[in-house]
Design a protein that fits this description.
The complex is a heterodimer of chains A (656) and B (302). With 656 residues, chain A is an alpha/beta fold. Chain A contains 15 helices and 32 strands. Classes of the chains: A alpha/beta (656), B alpha/beta (302).
């Protein structure tokens, strides 16, 4: 026998004062009488019963100690934990996913309640109605499974487990939950699974059906997200009795299923895309509110068709970037999916270092830079190779170093490179094979970021060096070989252009700014991406690559409240799991801000209409008995009964 | 009857103006009831040595020759003695139980008994009787002997106020001492609760020797008659200090009441059998009503 509140057993020490009080109680009060003889005659009559009276006194003390023991044991909440070898095992799965936030209309006069609250009520019904012989495991399920109480017969523990269930804003992985149920009941007789859920857009009934009839197809159906081992286990095991208890009735809901923001580094514009859905029975006329960093910047009316995904897009120029919040202005009963977050990075000026063989070669570049003031920093410089050699290393450092016709000595070890009509330096994994005096472009990699918006067809190209690439990518090739190549050198990237783009002035003016922007976009494409653009609630965020900062920190912006969290880095990685709340998150690493967002983008969660499946559930009410109740209640009742008995016997002068 | 083991202070015994007025009323009523009877100068049927001639009888050897009627001897030449009617006062004795057991009661028993005794004594004193007021416990205490006249009433009151409850009730030696000291026949009023371990019967029988007219006033307090006791108690006898642990239950209380009634009845029955006057004096009955009742029943009339 265990006690849920064993410390309260210390109240047993009250036995000492009880005994003392009893002694005080039985200590006789002295009374003067004028003629004792009258009383003595009576005492002689009753003397024969004195032994019995002593016993009765002892009986009174025993009664009082029994009362105390009953109350102390009741307070300590005794709990019988029986061996889990009985036949019937019930797995009670509680859907704690986001859709359980849905408000359900209350009965007449009563307030609305969430599906989660309704589900807990049903769960308590099952716990109370459970047969005493049954043992039950209760687990809270969302995108993961949390066992609230292992197989147990203690109603107290089961009730406590239900009370400990917490609603999350995560998605539901019904297959994983049922696979778990299957695994934990694998070695038990008569397993029963009760899944209390709103159905997760039919996923739960489907998974249950697969679980009840584990065939090849069902296993596959149930195991779409499950591990191969789990699917194999499903196939090999016998069917178990699984029931789905539908929670809720509300169906109408509008949701944002997707919201992204992309900055076009080449054009300097931002492109917003949202996917909306209306699960109502009529088209929904509503508004979309777009805010940046808490300030409303756009409101657009939209009409959402019934049951179809609606795509909304918007092009903006948000040079300074920021956190965007898109909100659906509708008062449906599931609000979690009515807002979404995205992040737009700010346009950043880069320091460009231009190294030319002759000063006049810089003129076209400088003209181009003047048209790119939002992109090219004022700290940019141009110089010749000779003067470059005299510059300090700090001065030479640049985000992008452009070498035209010459490779200066002492190139900085950091920063990306654009080598234009230069010999192939040693650090590039390529060999110059020759010069193609009349190159004709026959192929270029149209998918590569560097070639975005560029069309080399029919482009007059001056004589160009062509290479043989040991590593690297050929971006533009003539018949002789690659004339524009890209190299990923690990800590830096380089683009080799085999010809002088300034030779044909007109195309250059159009092409070079684009090429430069594309090059920078490619240079920074992976450098900047340290996190996914969005995560699901509850996801553990870890950087995509190792970080050097030993003490980064996370900044959470949830419901307008900013909170900082220090992060512990081990071997260049950290793991951040405080992502329950949708909102904007940012990680400050090496003094640089890496934003990301947490969004509930789950079509199944947003399809809140509960899957209604008729399922017969054994309530077990027929098994109820006195002994099926909590022991502490029985003990407390016993204590009360004993106290009443003691009171009656005392006042009837039986036990005094 | 029951009192806390810790002794409580005895209430003051008051003989105030109101008390005196009550006594006067009683006295007037008594005179109306016993008009002509309650006279101190009543002639005794006992032949004695007063001046009033009563009869003659033949002289026998041993008679006092001073009472020979020599005139009759001269005429008849036979020796006759002159007999005279003895003139005597009514002797009223109030024997007051002053034991510790009287120091109890919802209405203090000794105070109540003192009031009753004072009233009877006052009536007696008003009619020029000689009144003795004698407290007793296990022996006769110093008392008032032969008090006559209403003028002595304050002395009586002062005496009664000085009576302190103490000691054990032993009526037999006390009353034996009384009859040894008071040889004159009279009315004896015994006021007591009759809580005598050795029994009251023998003591009351002593009063028959001189053919006293005995009147018994049995003091009963309602607390004794129906004690409000419950639970585990240690009962301590107020006179002897003996103690006994008793569980007072409803059943025991009922039997106690029976025992108490039996005790009271035994006193009454003894009095009836011995032609003693008897009254059960419940302390919750005003003392003047009690005395009036006693007078109406003629218990004090010789």
């Amino acid at each position: 026998m265990n006690f849920l509140a064993p410390l309260l057993l210390g109240l047993g020490a009250l036995a000492a004062p009880v005994v003392v009080l009893y002694i005080l109680k039985v200590r006789r009060r002295e009374v003067r009488v004028p003629y004792l003889r009258l009383w003595e005659q009576l005492v002689i009559d009753t003397k024969a019963r004195s032994l019995f009276k002593r016993l009765k006194r002892l009986y009174s003390l025993l009664l009082q100690l029994l009362i105390l023991a009953s109350l102390v044991l009741a307070a300590a909440q005794p709990d019988f934990e029986l061996a889990s070898s009985e036949k019937e095992s019930i797995v009670l799965l509680l859907d704690c996913s986001a859709s359980m936030h849905t408000l359900e209309p209350g009965a007449e006069g009563s307030p609305d309640r969430t599906r989660f609250e309704l589900m807990l009520e049903r769960a308590r019904t099952f716990v109370e109605g459970r047969s005493r012989e049954d043992e039950m495991l209760i687990a809270a399920v969302s995108d993961r499974v949390e066992v609230l109480v292992p197989f147990n017969r203690s109603k107290l523990r089961l009730r406590d487990a239900v009370n400990r269930a917490r609603l999350t804003k995560r998605s539901l992985d019904a297959d994983a939950a049922l696979a778990f149920a299957r695994e934990v009941t694998a070695d038990r007789g008569a397993p029963v699974v009760l899944f209390l859920s709103d159905g997760n857009a039919g996923a739960v009934p489907a998974a249950l059906a697969a679980l009840n009839t584990p065939s090849e197809g069902a296993a596959e159906a149930a195991g779409s997200n499950a591990s191969p081992a789990t699917s194999e286990a499903l196939r090999s095991q016998k069917a178990l009795q699984a029931s789905y208890v539908a929670i809720g009735t509300t169906t109408d809901n509008a949701a944002i299923l997707r919201f992204t923001a992309r900055k076009n580094e080449s054009l300097g514009t931002d492109f917003l895309l949202a996917v909306l859905v209306n699960h109502g029975s009529t088209p929904l006329e509503t508004r979309l509110e777009l805010s940046r960093d808490g300030n409303l910047i756009a409101v657009e009316p939209v009409t959402l068709p019934v049951g179809e995904e609606f795509t909304w897009s918007k092009k903006l120029t948000l040079g300074e970037g920021g956190t965007l919040r898109l909100a659906l202005d509708t008062a449906d009963r599931f609000q979690l999916d009515n807002e979404a977050f995205a992040f737009v990075p700010a346009l950043r000026q880069r320091k460009i270092g231009l190294v030319v063989a002759e000063d006049h070669q810089a003129e076209p570049f400088l003209v181009a830079f003047q048209a790119m003031v939002e992109f090219v920093s004022e700290t940019s410089f141009f110089t010749t190779a000779e003067r470059y050699a005299t510059m300090t290393p700090e001065r030479r450092e640049a985000d992008v170093t452009i070498c035209v016709g010459v490779i200066p000595a002492d190139l900085p070890t950091k920063g990306n490179l654009i080598l234009m009509d230069t010999p192939v330096p040693d650090f590039l994994p390529a060999t110059e094979l020759g010069r193609d005096n009349s190159p004709t472009v026959w192929d270029w990699d149209r998918e590569h970021l560097l070639n975005r918006y560029l069309n080399y067809r029919e482009l007059p190209i001056p004589p160009a060096r062509y290479l043989r690439l040991d590593r690297g990518q050929a971006l533009v090739s003539s018949f002789e070989g690659p004339i524009i190549s890209a190299f990923d050198l690990g800590d830096r990237r380089a683009v080799h252009i085999g010809f002088d783009m300034t030779a044909e002035l007109f195309p250059f003016r159009l092409a070079f700014p684009m090429l430069l922007r594309n090059a920078v976009a490619w240079f920074e494409a992976e450098e900047d991406v340290l996190f996914e653009s969005t995560y699901s609630p509850g996801t553990t965020i870890t950087p995509l690559r190792r970080v050097a900062d030993p003490a980064p920190k996370a900044t959470l912006l949830v419901d307008g409240v900013v909170t900082d969290r220090p992060l512990e880095v081990r071997e260049g990685r950290f793991y951040f799991n405080e992502t329950e709340e949708p909102g904007a998150y940012a990680f400050v690493i090496d003094a640089r801000n890496y934003p990301t967002t947490v969004n509930l983008f789950d079509a199944a969660e947003s399809a809140i209409a509960p899957s209604l499946v008729a399922t017969e559930i054994k309530t077990g009410s027929e098994h109820r008995s006195l002994f099926n109740r909590d022991l502490w209640v029985i003990l407390a009742a016993l204590g009360l009964a004993l106290w009443t008995l003691e009171w009656i016997t005392f006042h009837r002068r039986i036990t005094e | 009857m029951a009192a806390p083991a810790t002794r409580t202070e005895r209430p003051a015994l008051l003989f105030d103006g109101d008390f005196l007025r009550k006594l006067e009323v009683l006295n007037v009523v008594a005179k109306k009831i016993f008009a002509g009877l309650l006279r101190a100068d009543r002639k005794s049927i006992k032949k004695g040595s007063s001046a009033e001639f009563a009869d003659h009888r033949a002289y026998v050897a041993g008679d006092d020759p001073r009472h020979i009627d020599w005139h009759l001897f001269g005429r008849l030449e036979e020796v006759f003695l002159k007999l005279y009617r003895e003139e005597e006062n009514l002797h009223l004795t109030v024997l007051l139980d002053a034991s510790e057991s009287m120091d109890a009661g919802r209405i203090h028993k000794l105070n109540y008994a003192s009031h009753v005794g004072a009233a009877l004594a006052y009536i007696g004193m008003s009619n020029m009787d000689a009144v003795n007021v004698l407290p007793f416990t296990q022996r006769l205490a110093e008392g008032l002997w032969g008090v006559k006249g209403r003028g002595k009433v304050f002395r009586l009151f002062e005496f009664l106020q000085g009576v302190k409850p103490a000691g054990v009730t032993e009526m037999a030696p006390a009353l034996r001492e009384f009859i040894g000291r008071e040889r004159r026949r009279g009315v004896v009023v015994v006021i007591s609760d009759f809580y005598d371990v050795d029994g009251f019967q023998q003591a009351l029988k002593y009063l028959r020797f001189l053919k006293h007219q005995v009147f018994v006033v049995h003091i009963v307090d309602s607390e004794e008659e129906s004690p409000e006791l419950r639970g585990d108690l240690r009962l301590v006898d107020s006179e002897t200090g003996n103690a006994r642990e008793i569980n007072v239950t409803d059943g025991l209380l009922a039997r106690y009441k029976d025992a108490f009634e039996e005790h009271a009845k035994s006193v009454e029955n003894f009095c009836v059998r011995n032609e003693y006057g008897y009254v059960r004096a419940r302390t919750d009955v005003p003392f003047d009503d009690l005395v009036l009742g006693i007078l109406r029943r003629g218990g004090l009339v010789g």
